[in-house]
Amino acid sequence: MKKEMLPIKSELKSRRIKFDVPQNTISWAFMKELRENNKTKRIYKEINPYVEVYQFRDNLYGLFTENCDGMGDVWMYLIIGPDKAMLIDTGYGLGDIKALCSHLAGGRELIVVNTHDHFDHAYGNCRFDKVYCHEYLVPYLTNQHSHMWDYLFDYWGDNIWLEFDRSDLPVWREYQIIGVPDGYTWDLGGGYEVELIHTGGHAAGHAAFLDKHNRILFTGDNICSDVSGCGSVGAPGAQGPYAECTLLSYYRDRMRLLVDRIDEYDYIFPQHFMNNVEASVMPNILEAVSAVVDNPDCYDYKVETWGKMRDQKNVRYFKYVRGFSVIAYNINNK
Ligand SMILES: [Fe+2]
């Protein structure tokens, strides 16, 4: 039976051509209801026609943008502090995200941070002069270059996954990348603190951000109501500096720390799909991750796919998280 994903009414300048994989039904229902009926939604068409702005708290905006490739659509978050504002992730940079943030921040100084380096979270960095991240992420961000958006277009220059104007992507320019250690804390004014917490898992230099005023933990791509890809078993799935941080065992240890600190936050805001998820989900995620680390064969189901040349089998294993979604992992020594 074909999986249905009924279209979501949208006034964005972008238009979906296709997704690579069907999205989780519950996540899709949440996004359809939010995007079609939420009363705070606003598109600042004259500044950036590619972003829907939602107000989730008095001083917190969710900036929704469609993913330029075939994966899940993306959240960026803007916290407005008393003196300074903080933007968490920059998407693909489609449309003038800098001008939009400046407008919403009412002239406050803007601090830009990344959860991780992947296309849909950090390709808009070059619209800004300076970006902060965990120190392990720096070598990955320095790999960015002027052709990194080319894969979004086919041989004839047409969009593959999402219809948009190529001229609305950023023009590549160098920017300052500042790596900070685990626990680094910014003051947005008047003692309004946001702390970086290194998590690894989904990417070696992946970090979460704890907004201590709103008691919100921004968890990047490690927690997702669709599928949480938060590490592999056996050997790291990724190559590169600090690759061992992408092991599920490393992530389990960082999750344990986040569960130990659960009294410091009430809600989880992931970078894709459902947000405002109650923090009570954290021990359940830790339980699932720990079970897999102890016994990688305790998965609930697996999905086999073949590479583009149909010569290489990839097996992804899935484990349910009580009351939530699934974690997905590869067993790399199998
Ligand atoms: Fe992502």
* Overall geometry: globular
How far apart lie the N and C ends?
31 Å
The radius of gyration computed from the alpha-carbon positions, rounded to a whole number of angstroms, is: 19 Å
CATH architecture: 4-Layer Sandwich
CATH fold call: Metallo-beta-lactamase, Chain A
Widest sheet: strand ordering: 10-11-12-13-15-16
CATH class: Alpha Beta
Written account of the structure:
17% of the residues lie in helices and 26% in strands. It has 334 residues and is an alpha+beta fold. The protein has one domain: Metallo-beta-lactamase, Chain A, CATH 3.60.15.10. Helix 5 runs antiparallel to helix 6. The two termini are 31 Å apart. The model has no long low-confidence stretch (mean pLDDT 95). The structure holds fe (ii) ion. The site of fe (ii) ion has 6 residues, from helix 3.
Quick structural summary:
With 334 residues, the chain is of the alpha+beta class. It has helices spanning 25-37, 97-104, 119-122, 138-141, 248-260, 281-294; strands spanning 15-16, 52-57, 60-65, 74-80, 84-88, 109-113, 130-134, 162-163, 176-180, 185-187, 193-198, 207-211, 216-220, 228-229, 267-270, 277-278, 301-306, 313-320, 326-329. It has a six-stranded mixed sheet with strand order 10-11-12-13-15-16, with no helix packed on it.
